[in-house]
Amino acid sequence: MLTSVRSLMAAxxxxxxxxxxxxxxxxxxxxxxxxxxxxxxxxxFRGVDxxxxxxxxxxxxxxxxxxxxxxxxxxxxxxxxxxxxxxxxLDVYGGWSGSVSDAVSFDVGVIAYxxxxxxxxxxxxxxxxxxxxxxxxxxxxxxxxxxxPDQDSLGGTDNFYVYSDVGxxxxxxxxxxxxxxxxxxxxxxxxxxxxxxxxxxxxxxxxGEVVSVGVAYVGAEGDIVAPAxxxxxxxxxxxxxxxx
Length: 244
Fold this sequence. Notes:
With 244 residues, the protein is mainly β. The protein has one domain (15-242): Porin. The protein is built from one helix and 15 strands, in the order βαββββββββββββββ. A 13-stranded antiparallel β-sheet has the order 1-2-5-6-7-8-9-10-11-12-13-14-15, with no helix packed on it. It has a two-stranded antiparallel ribbon with strand order 3-4. 30% of the residues are buried. Residues 1-22 have low confidence and may be disordered. InterPro entries: CHP02001. This is Porin. Residues 1-26 form the signal peptide. Keywords: Signal.
């Protein structure tokens, strides 16, 4: 059984991100606020479809704090019938990011996944994450790990996830390419042995400084199929996004 998680790689997206200016008082103490909103053609998390093949509405607010700390929240509609955790996912997270050089950065934090209208059962859980990013020219490679310790909402077990993301901006063009490979060992899979790979490859085109469009091919291993629905079918997914 899978509990949904905020997409670190939301590959099937028709998305929009809208940043809001921080109030003057927040700016005075070194806090930068931003917001994002999205309409996604299919909410994918680690290759798994959490919106039943349908469009989802998403959005969040982030606050960059002094000394590299940050907090934020993010939410998405999910498919109440096929996923079974109500119709809303709400994530609350905080962490610390920094760099050791112009080329190497890092990020550590914790995120809580909440399902406020899940009905009879408690599906909320907590996951710790960390990553290292290396930039070389127009390319960036990120290696990351996420761990959810034993929790009742995970069936009294844990979940371990490791992944790599690669992004390359094509010089003198508005085009960027991306790739993702992840591996799950634990509760959050659709395989009989609780181990699964997921993957995606995509491209984005910036339409000016705010809007971009993208397309990606995404999928995951899975040999457990819900009645009349397969959460891990490969899919071609699309993105429309805006950010400030």
